[in-house]
Amino acid sequence: MTDDVRQSPLAPARLVVLVSGEGSNMRALAGAAADPGFGAQIVAVGADRPCAGIDWAAGRGTPVFVHPLAPAAGAPSDRKAVRAQWDRELAERVAAFDPDLVVCAGFLKLLGPAFLGRFGGRILNTHNSLLPAFPGTHAPADALAAGVRITGATVFLVDSGTDTGAITAQVAVPVADEDTVGSLLERIKAAERAQLVDIVGRMARGGWTLRGRRVVVGDRGRVS
Question: Which Gene3D superfamilies does the record cross-reference, listed alphabetically (predicted)?
Answer without folding.
Answer: Formyl transferase, N-terminal domain (3.40.50.170)
